[in-house]
Every structure is written in structure tokens, then in C-alpha cells.
Amino acid sequence: SSIQAEHAVACQLGKARFSDNSFCFRRFFSTSDMDDHVLTALEDLRYDGPLVNEELFAKEIEEAKSIKFTGLVAWLSTQIKSLCNMEDHVNAITDLDDWNTFLLELSGFLKEMQCPLTVLTEGPVSQRLVSKENRLLLLGFLCDELEAARMIKVLRPDSGALQVQMDESPVAKAMKGMLITLGFGKPPPNITPAQLFSKAESKVRELVPKAGPAVMSKPLFAGGLTEKQWFALAKLQEQMQGEYRVRRETLIKRLDVTIQSFLWAERLKGMEDKIMTAYQPRRKLMETEPNVSVGHVLAAREDLTMLEKT
């Protein structure tokens, strides 16, 4: 409605302030109508996930822990993040054993949004979504914030002409860094890849002998591979990549569980947000995908095999 739209924009622009336990749609709807309000808002937002079904939504919102509920929250948070240039978003879970991880991510996201609802931002993290009303409050808050963000995007579009952002591939990024290091200028637009690599190779062959073994030792692998061997090497690397990915996922999962176990201690009650503020920035730096490629192996030097013990 126009009232909701106007109020949502006012929320986003800071023209309206809420008391600690009030919320936009609470001013216009009774608690019994919250379900309908959220469903209507999701329809307006063009949400097409499983909870667009009224019966399924009613069933899942009654559950204290719901995987589909986390999927809806993840969708809303991702939409808001993309429009508001935020750092955090909430990931959906596929196993209810990860519910605490979901709650911790949600806590960080709401903190970045400066959510005014203390029932969602204060007290033990594990208790914030226990009640159905709080779960509806969360969905209503996220829906209204997303509506406001989309309206502002329309009312205040980016100035200037259409901007096209090109993502630089890892190979292009590495090539660019190599050319800069070797002292090359910007390659002419008509140069072929073969010509570019040939010039780079000639420059490397010229510089390596001058650097000396102290700077660059001999390559660990100096042989050549047939096409069949290249395919075999790529397959082996893929298998090892998968194994190390699983190892990383396991270690990171253990770390998440360890941090969660700290939050259960009585002496740390009320310090959940402080702990997560310190942990989340470090956690985001941990990636499950290994970053070692065949190229790293081929570029390895003899000194890689030397281990110094102190």
C-alpha cells in the first residue's frame, strides 16, 4: 500500500525512529495479520522460493528451526546486500545442526544494518528466534528494508551513463602482474597471445641468469609433458583439490563449533555479539577452496624442498 511504501522509505532515510520493541508493520497490523503482511510483501518483492506457498509458509513459520526459513532469510539478506553495498549477508543451511551458525551470521548482518529491534539483536543469540512473533518480526523487518532499498534505487539512480564492469579473470590478473613486473607497457590491441607470451618468455630468460641462484633457484621440474600426461596431471590435481576442500571444510566446521561452544559458557552470557564481532572478520578470510593450481607446481623452485628447522 502507499502507506507502507511511504513509511518504508521514511525508515530507510532516517525520518522515522522506532522504539526498542516496535516495528513498521506493527503499527498497522495486529499480530494475527503478520503472516498475511509478510506474504504480501514477499509477493511484491517477487520472491519465488518455496515459502511463497501460504500453507507451507504457515507450517514453516511455526517451526522453531526451519531450513526453508533460513533460505528465505538468506534470499532477503542477499538482495539487501547487493542494493546497499553491505559486507555481510546470511547463508542458508542444509542441516539443522548448523542452526547456531545461521543465528550467528544473522546477528552480524542485523548489527551491520543497525536493526533497532532489541528482541532480535540483544540477549542470548540462541533465544532470539524462539518465538513465532520474533521470526515474523525478522521477516517483516527485512521485507520492509528491501522494499525501501529498491525504492531508493529507483528514486536515486546512479548518475551518469550505463557503466559496464568487467571482471578480471585470475589468468588475466596474473598475466597483468607479470607484465608489470617485467617492465612491459600496455600491450597493443593487435598483439596475439602467442606473440605476447613469446615476448614475456624472452624477457624472463634474459633476467633469470642475472638474478642468480640466491634470488631464483633452478626449477623443481624441468622436463616436458605430453598431451596425455597433461590430462592425467589435471585429473590428479582435480582429485587432490577435492580432498583438500573436504579437509578445509572439516577444519572450518570444527572451528565454528568450537566458537559456538564458548558461547554456551555461563560466564560468557551476554557477550555473544562481542565475540562474533571479533570472530567474523577472521572467519570470512577462511576459504574452503584450495588456491593451489598446476601452475603453482610447475613454477616451484628447488628451494621449496629445503626445510629449515630452528
TrEMBL record:
Domain of life: Eukaryota
Pfam families assigned: DUF2465
InterPro entries assigned: FAM98
GO cellular component: tRNA-splicing ligase complex
Signal peptide extent: none
Family statement: Belongs to the FAM98 family.
Protein name as catalogued: Uncharacterized protein
Source organism: Rhipicephalus microplus
Organism phylogeny: Eukaryota, Metazoa, Ecdysozoa, Arthropoda, Chelicerata
